[in-house]
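Lab notebook, bench 4. We co-purified these components, and the gel suggests they stay together. Before we commit to crystallization screens, I want a quick structural picture of the whole thing.
Request: model the full complex, all chains together.
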Amino acid sequence: ELASHLSREVENGRIARLMMKLMAINERYEFNGEQAWSENGDKYILKLFRDYAFHQVDRDGNPVLDIGHMIRCLNKMDVGIEEKVNLTSRDGQTTFIISYRELKKMLISAFGELQTGKT
Amino acid sequence: MDGDWDELARIPFPPPGVHRLPTPVTTMTFDTAQELLWAGNEYGRVTSFHGSKLQRYTSFKAHTAADGPDAPVRQILVNDKGVIVLGRKDLHMALRRGPPIWHIRHGDMKDLQCMSFTSKGAAEIIAAGQQNTMLVVDLNKGEVVKQVPTEHHYSIMRRARYICAATATGTVNLLDPVTFAVVKTWNAHSALINNMDAQHDFIVTCGYSLRQGQAYVLDPFLNVFDIKKMSSMPPIPFPAGAAFVRMHPRMLTTSIVVSQSGQMHVVDLMNPNTSNVRQANVMTYLNMFEIAPSGEAIALTDPECFIHLWGSQSKVHFVDLPGHIDVAPEEEPHPPMDWSLDTPLSSIGMPYYREVLASAWPENVCDVGAPPVKFDPQFLASLTPTDSYLYGRNSRGLRRNQVEYTRDLEKNANAGLKAPKFLSEKARESSQSATGTSDDKAD
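Here is the predicted assembly.
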């Protein structure tokens, strides 16, 4: 009973930790105006990934709240697989094709910068 | 240009925003490894188009508004790693898929206009412009490695045996690709150079003369310089007015000359009397012309913001052995699941992995048991109440979201009364200075 309960919840902590990293990085006001966070910087892409994973919409532009999609995206980023995603900016002008491996690398380096206070 | 060449595609160049008017292409170049055409706009944006239908592939901003509203893309070069994009005051390198590799802004980048690969193949460039310094940039490191003073301001650069650099006064300087010293100066046109190309032994230019000291008129000829003999050759007549020229990448003595009205001539420089003439259908005039590395496609742009692609319907290709174009796969659909509270998040499996996960947090000590922040009554009084919350200015003298050490406050407040402490609490207090400065490494 206990073991089955444990196995059900064992992934939660990992997902929460990954999401906390992403939340700690995204939209930090202190970084407004810095090149790496502006529209041609690498951290801009982490913002677009957040939109991709959590701000899905349907054909009519209504929010789609698919927890399965969110967890899949997070799992793929957590591992850093070679699969590529198409990330598009809100105005539709910017389109990147990027692998989860590259996204993972960006997340780790951005979080590292927060830790050392060097940005 | 074979007999079956025709216009294969004509696409509107995407406008800078959803509700914005389209703008013309500021620069374009064919990729050397993939079936892509790269184009830049006035707002620092680079967009790639794929194949003979010019389907939009990726798009990114190379230069941002921080450069001022005027941040046009001046030139694009490609190498095996990605695309190099020159702006007035910065240089950007990105993967073909869009993500940035590096971005350089340097104090000596004031008004860059052009760039060229140097003697180090495609691993280094030199950038120049309306400024007295040229900058040599190592593309692998993304660093300025040398500044070269120059008396001349350059608007076009092309790499052949020498770096051929056109000035704003109608002359072309041949720069040594190692030392960047001027080896030879060639007076190509009396007023200014409109377009230039160089390949192996030849430099070809189109330019303007000033007529009656009033109007700039396109010269009705193509000027040719023989690099091997270091002397100019007789100009090749082009009565329609030569506006643009490219050397044919495969036929080493052949060039394609284009007039503003769309007349295209394929001319052999060694035998100028035989030429092949085609007419592009343009509403107004042309403002740019490029040829693909295969010689099997050309692109033209017009002020109505269209890109025209010409080639042979049956065998058009931009490069001989095109590399694979990376696209994102459609996410495979997954079976519908009931995400009620009982469904564990682990129902979505993890991909196979062997490296440290991105979710791994560093080991650091956090104080989780501290009491909540107590607000100063004076501060609370300064706020305006609503039905459900208070609002007002942040007058507490603290930053937004600044961490407060509430344990200390509590201790001071209850200075007279010592509450008994758990051992763990004492231990934590003694190590408190350490918690504030913990700087554990990730992973």
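Strands of chain A lie at 84-88, 95-99. Worth comparing against the SEC data before the next meeting. Chain A has a mean pLDDT of 86.
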